[in-house]
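Hi C.,

You asked whether I'd gotten around to modeling the 165-residue construct. I have! Everything is below, sequence then structure, no commentary in between.
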Amino acid sequence: MATSSYVAVSPLGGHACYFVIPIAPSAARSNAHPAVLFDGVCKLCDAAVLFLIDRDPRAILRFASLQSDTARELLESVGGTVETDPPKSILLVENGRVYERSTAALRIARHLEGAWKLLGLLLVVPAPVRDLVYRWIASNRYRWFGRSPTCRVPTPQIRARFLDG
């Protein structure tokens, strides 16, 4: 694909290393697919992204690290902002709306294959109740799972799932 647009990429491993890959100008701004924005240095989040990719064989979901320019630009395009240092929530950008915490996680589950879709039924539980559990896990994720100081080099198939590369 010939284009003069470039974007820095840090899929699955945070902002410690970057690739520069040519992309089509509209690719990073596309709202055609739901976008999962995750903490790129969190090992739990990294594992969650791989889990989602494995259970999304139709490749509906797209991904970007919250530390990336692509995530910032996508959020700005729908009126959102990135909460950083460290990010406190996974975000889902879908149909021009931004979802966070447990609502994002459960809406993401609705796109997965098999019984995972049933987790979406938990959306009937009030968000403040669901988010108590989410916030507890999020506040302890670095202590329990650690941070990733280096970047994982994804396969071309996985890289194609990232908005920033």
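If it helps when you're writing up: The two ends are 12 Å apart (CA to CA).

Thanks,
B.
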